[in-house]
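Supplementary Methods S3. Input chains for the assembly prediction are listed below.
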Amino acid sequence: MAKNNLTAQEQATLKKMFLLSHLVFISFSMVKMEANGFMMTMEPALEELYADNPEEKKEAVARHMSFFNTHAVPFSFVAGLAYAMERQHSEGKVDGTTIENIKAALMGPTAGMFDSLFFNCIRVIAAGISIGLCRQGNFLGTIIFILLYGVTQSVVKWLLINTGYTLGTSFIDQVFNSGLIQVLTKCASVLGLMMVGAMTAQMVSVPLNLVINTTGAEGGEVVIADILNSVFPGLLGVVALFLMVWLIKKGWTPTKLIGLIFAFALIGAAIGIF
Amino acid sequence: MAGAALKICIVYFLLCYIDEICLSWQCLTRPIVIAPLAGLVLGDFRTGIIMGAELEAIFMGISAIGGVIAADATLSSVIAVAYTILTGASITDGVALAFPIGTVLTSVNNLSMSLISNPMAAYWEKLAQKDLKQFKIQNFLFAALMKLIPSVVLFISVAYGVDGLNKLLGTLPPFVMTGLGAASGMMIGVGFAILTAMIWDQEVGIFFFVGYVMVAYLHMDTLAIAILGAACAITMFFSNKRLIDMKNELLNAGVKTAENKNSEEDFF
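Predicted C-alpha cells for the full assembly:
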C-alpha cells in the first residue's frame, strides 16, 4: 500500500540501506557499540539528503556516530525511521535532538522485544529442529537452521526498514501504547519455553551410575537412576536445570556455573557415582 | 597438521566474515553451521554434522548474557571438531573438551576488543566526519582484521596444540574423561537454564513442562512440538489482542463522546 508511494530515489536508498544494515556489529566496541554499523547504514540516506549541504551532513554524521545498541533485526527499523526523520529534518520539520532522542528511546524496547522473538523463540525452534536432524548425520539440519534463523532475519529486516520509513514516528506511539508488544513477547515466551522444555527432556542428562546393594546377595542391586526415572523420566536432569535457574536468578554467572559443574562431575567421577 | 590447520582456519575466517557483513547475526558462526563445514574440509563430514548438533545444544544459551560471553562457541566448536577428527578421538570426548577450550579462548576476542576496538572508537568518529567513503572502506578492512586475529590463534592451536592436548589427555587417569563426559550432559543444561531464567514468568512457566512431557512421555519430534507450540502462541495472541482491542474501543468511545469527534482515522 504505502510502499507504492515511494519515489524511485527513496526505494534505491532503502535498498542500499537494507544491504548495509547487515553490518550491525561491524567494528563493534564497548564504547559506542553499534555506532559504526548504524553510520554505515545511514550513509546512503545522508548522501542523498545532504548532498549539497556539508554543514548539515556533518551534524547528521555526529548524530549517527553516537552510542547505539539494539537487536540486529529492529536495527533496520530504527534506521528506516531515522531516514524518514532525517528527510523531515532536511525540510526543517524535525530538529536534530528529536532524532537523537527517538533513537535512544527505541534501543531498550526494540532490543527486548526482538530478543524474546528471535533469540529466545525462533532461534530455539530452528536449533531444536536442526539438532534433531544433525544428530542423525543429516546436513539438511544445518541448511534448515540457516533458512529458519538467518534468512528469516534478513527478510524481516527488509520489511522493517520499509515499515520504519513509511510509518514514521506516529506508528511508535500507537504500538507501544497499545500494549500489543507485551502480548507478543508473552506468546513468543510460550513457544520458546515449550521448545526449551522439549530439548531439556531430549538432551540434558545427569548420568548417575550409582548402584546400591540392599540385601548383600547376588541380584539384590538397586539402580538408583532407574528408580528416579520411573518416578519421572529424567528427574535428575530437571532438578539440575531448575537448580541452575535458581542460581542464575541469584546472580551466578554462567562461568561460575560451569566451574561448579566441572568440579561436581570430576569429583563424582573420582568417587565413582558417574 | 599445519595443512589441516590452515584449511580449518580459512573456513573459520570466511564464515565469521560473511556472518558479520552480509548474513544476519550469529547464524553462520553457530556450532551447528561451522562444525559440519569444519568436518567437511577435514574429510569427515558426518562426524562434523553430529558434533555440530551436540555442540549447538551445549552452546545454545551461552551467548545470551548481555555482552559478556562465557565461552566462545565458534572457536571451541572448530577446535573440538579438529581434535576429534585429527586424533580419532570419540565424539563424546571431543564434545566434552569443547567447553574448557571455549572458556580459555574467549579471552582472545575479549582482549582484542578491549585493546583494539575500544580505543578505536574516537578515531572512527573523526574519520566519519572527514570522509565517509574512507570510513566505509576502512570499516570493512578493520572487520577483516578483527576476524584475522582469532583465525591466527585458531591456526596455532590446531597446528601445534592438538598433539600436545592428545598426549596430555593420555597421561590423565581415566576418571577425568568420564567426569568430562558427565559434565557435558549437564553443561547442556546451563544454556537451557539461562534461556529459562530469561523467558520464565509465572503466567507462562508451565509451558516448559508441556514441552518436557511431549518428549519425555510422548516421544514427539521437535518439529511437531514447534507446530503445537505455535498453535498455542497464536491462539493466546489473538485472545489477548481481542481484550486489548476491546479496552481501546471502550477508551475511544469515551473520547468520542467527550470530544464528539471521529477518531477512526487514527487507526489507519
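DSSP finds nine helices and no strands in chain B. Residues 128 and 263 of chain B are 45 Å apart (CA to CA).
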